[in-house]
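So, who can interpret the following?
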Amino acid sequence: QVQLVESGGGLVQAGGSLRLSCAAAGSIFSINAMGWYRQAPGKERELVATVDSDRSTTYADSVKGRFTISRDNAKNTVYLQMNSLKPEDTAVYSCNANVRTSTWGGFRRYWGQGTQVTVSS
């Protein structure tokens, strides 16, 4: 069993910053990709950013230059530093991780419970 626990969401004014954290715990043998998604009210969930085990990253065009994803492999934790926040960044942010729980098993995607980010204008 693997759990992903997120923290760091909240209310911030436009132009402000927040840092989200997501820690994976449980029966973890290895983790390859980790990422953040978000879902705003009435919209579909969208990819925000991903980081692979070699720390290569991808970003949605809407957050490039403002958000930075990083990870601490020793802590099985992924972070999302969000700067220059805009009201349109308001959403529930969820992390995921592709986790292998044994040497003979494959990777399976796990999700966190989500954390609310609200940006006021």
